[in-house]
Amino acid sequence: MIAALSTLLVFQLLGEALVRALGVPVPGPVVGLALLIPLLAWRPAVLAMVRPTAQTLLQHLSLLFVPAGVGVMLHLQRLGDEALAIGVALVLSTWIGLVAAALTLQALMRLTGRSTAAKDAA
After folding, report:
1. Chain centroid to CA 11
2. CA-CA to 17 of 20 to 30 Å: which in 49, 77, 90, 109?
3. Tell me, what DSSP letter sits at residue 24?
4. Do 46 and 83 fall within a single domain?
5. String of b and e for 23-36 (b: at least 16 CB within 10 Å)?
6. 19 and 26 in contact (C-beta within 8 Å)?
7. Final residue before a domain boundary, out of 42, 59, 76
8. 54, 3 contact by CB (below 8 A)
9. Rounded to two decimals, what is the model's pTM?
10. All residues at 6 or more sequence positions from 37 whose CB lies less than 8 Å from its CB, including other chains
């Protein structure tokens, strides 16, 4: 378990170092995970070593949401005061995301030559 945890932390550190060195606006742990994935695919022994530790961490992932919940409770009055702005931002961002996804899918279908079911039926 120590070796697996060390492996995960080393790749997180590598990701953080790359992000800071290159000034890329991506979280360091995401870059570290992107660096770890090829290693896991290339060396199944590393995957077998890391898997139990990763599963244990994922089982306790909900504990990481406790600080966020405390923050919400701490700023509950402010959230209430700005509920309309927060609600509008949530609804608009959801709709914008859905439209962007639909347009992207439509463009990709056009690029790959696939048509929609409605066009095929007509």
Report:
1. 17
2. 49
3. -
4. no
5. eeeeebbebbeeeb
6. yes
7. 59
8. no
9. 0.56
10. none
